[in-house]
């Protein structure tokens, strides 16, 4: 977790000190040309300091679990993975938000964007595409999994004095995911629609949220209506892996 200047609710500071910190954050973000974020920094509290108490609180929100056994799925098929060429990788890089955060390594999407604007663009994209292709095929050393699949966790203070964990995944994993999502967008729509409206459907999530909200408002007085607060999503990693292996085997690497 990055070690930000503290705005922890456990240690009170003077109004002047808090104002000075917000101003400094605003200036730092302006220097990165993150003007929208710099304006938000003036009115929103900074992430809290990384302390033992904060780590314990975030650990409770993200409890560890035993590794999932996927041996029953059999060996993956790297030969089925589509070819991810430099043009496809460049397109995926451009879709990152200009000021998207980096993961545990500190590498940000903006760093890659800046690099491909140089005269070495072609060489860089060729090597980047090679790395992305290797990761997509599952050929990276297994020892790298905790780093590539890990994330930097930042704690943001909430109004009720609780903490909101914000995870930022490693850029390389996110880049591979963007490339593969672009390739299988139409296939995802065919497999998931209409049960899943947030994949490959423009404004699908927004439409779903608004429809659900209107339904609850129309049936707010009906005791038979299901309360949205009682819905608890359940995810099974093994089930997801089995479905990928059977429906889209090239993504099971």
Word description of this protein:
This protein has a two-stranded antiparallel ribbon with strand order 1-2. Strand 1 (151-157) and strand 2 (163-169) form a beta hairpin. The protein is mainly alpha-helical and 253 residues long. Among the domains are: 1-48, no CATH class; 81-183, no CATH class. Mean pLDDT is 82; it is low at 1-12. It is 47% helix and 6% strand. It starts with 14 loop residues before the first helix and ends in a 6-residue tail after the last helix.
Task: Sum up the structure in keywords.
disordered N terminus, two-stranded antiparallel sheet, 253 residues
Uncertain stretches of 5 or more adjacent residues? 1-12
Largest sheet: 2 strands, antiparallel
- Largest sheet: spatial strand order: 1-2
Shape: globular
Rg from alpha-carbon coordinates:
22 Å
* Structure class: mainly alpha
Tally the helices: 11
Query: Average pLDDT value?
Result: 82
Number of strands: 2
Sequence of secondary-structure elements? HHHHHHHEEHHHH
Distance between termini? 29 Å
Q: How much helicity do the residues have?
A: 40-55%
Topology:
Elements: H1 15-31, H2 35-43, H3 52-61, H4 86-94, H5 109-115, H6 121-136, H7 145-148, E1 151-157, E2 163-169, H8 171-183, H9 185-192, H10 204-218, H11 237-247
Antiparallel strand pairs: 1-2
């Amino acid at each position: 977790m990055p070690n930000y200047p503290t705005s922890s609710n456990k240690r009170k500071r003077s109004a002047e000190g808090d104002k000075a910190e917000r101003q400094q954050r605003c200036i730092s973000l302006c220097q990165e040309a993150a003007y929208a974020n710099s304006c938000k920094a003036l009115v929103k509290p900074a992430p809290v300091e990384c302390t033992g108490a904060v780590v314990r609180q975030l650990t409770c929100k993200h409890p560890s679990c035993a590794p999932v056994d996927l041996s029953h799925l059999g060996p993956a098929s790297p030969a089925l993975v589509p070819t991810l060429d430099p043009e496809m990788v460049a397109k995926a890089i451009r879709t990152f938000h200009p000021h998207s955060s980096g993961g545990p390594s500190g590498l940000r999407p903006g760093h890659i964007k800046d690099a491909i604007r140089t005269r070495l663009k072609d060489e860089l994209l060729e090597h980047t595409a090679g790395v992305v292709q290797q990761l997509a095929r599952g050929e990276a050393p297994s020892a790298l999994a905790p780093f590539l699949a890990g994330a930097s966790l930042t704690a943001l203070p909430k109004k009720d004095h609780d903490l909101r964990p914000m995870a930022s995944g490693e850029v390389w994993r996110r880049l591979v995911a963007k490339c593969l999502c672009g390739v299988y967008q139409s296939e995802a729509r065919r497999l998931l629609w209409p049960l899943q409206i947030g994949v490959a459907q423009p404004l699908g999530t927004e439409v779903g949220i608004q429809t659900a909200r209107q339904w609850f408002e129309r049936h707010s007085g009906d005791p038979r209506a299901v309360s949205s607060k009682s819905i608890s999503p359940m995810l099974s990693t093994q089930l997801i892996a089995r479905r990928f292996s059977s429906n889209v085997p090239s993504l099971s690497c």
